[in-house]
Write a structure and sequence with these properties.
Length: 374
């Protein structure tokens, strides 16, 4: 019958219908099937068919009756992603053979049609690219499995209670199966599955995951309505790179300005305005909320003012009173140590800094701290 999925015996002799997440793997398997069929003189017509994962996974792969389906249905995981997941888990047990890993970040929240959910990706690179576009490249990749998600969903459905799982989305077009063509007569119940799957267009799956943290900022991104990332309160960029540096530079310009009143006012004002504008860009790009940017920038300004006051009132008089004395020696030693430690950090972390903006920001902040001592 048209649309019936291809079943084959596994090493134990059980009939198995396989679904591939990679179209190339399904096409390769189809070629082997056709070659074997040609050698046996079989004239079956077969094709690779893309079907929605949401149409088969929970209903048939997890909850399907093998006797009614004529065999067991399985999803073949992506070998490379299994290796990536095992590396992230650092030797921890992922699951038995056939376990499909899912990559997600609990602080990354998508919103579509008014529904917020944590996206889980079948490929690690898709998660990393999404995080990069959302400005959250320093976030930690977390691992769950498709089987774990389905198990929790089943427990929640049986108990009728919310066990703390929220929506999870898998932005994947679907899975690929080998489908028997119209020239084959088949009376097995799995034929109905093939017909139903063949009639459904490819789409993503929506089910529920664990770990949901509400996002706070949004960024438009193509096929998604919103991307939300919660960078925390306050914004680390504002106090570290923007509020502190612009305020400290403005205070230095005001102190070292000549007798020209216009220069003494305009230069620090322009510096503060530049820092405020850069902080506002974090808000305009959707990486932070107004509260996060405001609190972070204000914290940076206060820190710069406090440091400048302590430097002028305590450190400078001590150095002037004893030139070449212990205080000056300690200051130079501390500055040299700071520069030395910064150099070590820069040399040992240059690869992660290139890959992660958060690590680069931390490195630059360490550099600016060294500059202040100089």
């Amino acid at each position: 019958m048209d649309g019936s999925p291809m079943l084959e015996p596994d090493p134990s002799g059980k009939l198995v219908g396989r679904f591939w997440l990679d179209q190339a793997a399904a096409v390769e398997r189809l070629a082997k099937f056709k070659e074997a069929a040609a050698e046996a003189g079989d004239v079956k017509s077969m094709e690779v068919r893309q079907i929605p994962l949401s149409e088969v996974y929970l209903q048939l792969i997890v909850g399907g009756n093998e006797a009614q389906l004529g065999g067991q249905l399985r999803i073949e995981p992506l070998p490379r992603e299994v290796r990536n997941a095992q590396q992230i888990l650092a030797g921890a047990y992922l699951g038995p053979s056939g376990t499909v890993p899912l990559f997600f970040c609990s602080t990354l929240v998508l919103e579509s049609r008014g529904i917020s959910f944590v996206p889980a990706f079948l490929r690690e690179k898709d998660l990393l690219e999404t995080l990069k576009k959302a400005g959250g490249t320093g976030a930690r990749t977390e691992i769950t499995t498709l089987q774990n998600v389905a198990e929790k969903l089943g427990e929640q459905a049986k108990s009728g209670t919310d066990v703390g799982w929220r929506h999870i989305g898998l932005p994947t077009p679907g899975v690929f199966c080998l489908r028997v063509g119209a020239t084959v007569e088949c009376s097995r119940p799995e034929a109905a599955l093939g017909q139903a799957a063949a009639a459904s267009p490819g789409c993503g799956v929506s089910c529920s995951p664990h770990l949901h943290l509400p996002g706070t900022a949004s960024l438009s991104l193509g096929w998604l309505t919103k991307i939300q990332v919660d960078p925390g309160m306050p914004s680390s960029h504002a106090p570290q790179s923007l509020g502190f540096l612009s305020s400290y530079a403005a205070l230095e310009l005001a102190r070292s300005a000549d007798s020209s009143l216009s220069w003494a006012v305009l230069a620090p004002s322009a510096t503060l305005a530049s820092g405020a504008f850069l902080s506002w860009l974090r808000l305009a790009l959707g990486f932070h909320t107004l509260a996060q940017v405001s609190v972070g920038h204000l914290l940076g300004m206060c820190t710069a003012a406090a440091w400048r006051w302590l430097y002028a009132k305590l450190l400078m008089p001590a150095l002037a009173a004893d030139p070449g004395g212990p205080a000056q020696v300690c200051l130079h030693a501390a500055t040299g140590a700071a520069v030395f430690l910064f150099s070590i950090k820069a040399l040992t972390n240059w690869r992660p800094c290139i890959a992660s903006s958060s690590k680069l920001n931390s490195l630059l902040f360490s550099y600016f701290v060294c500059v202040m001592f100089l």
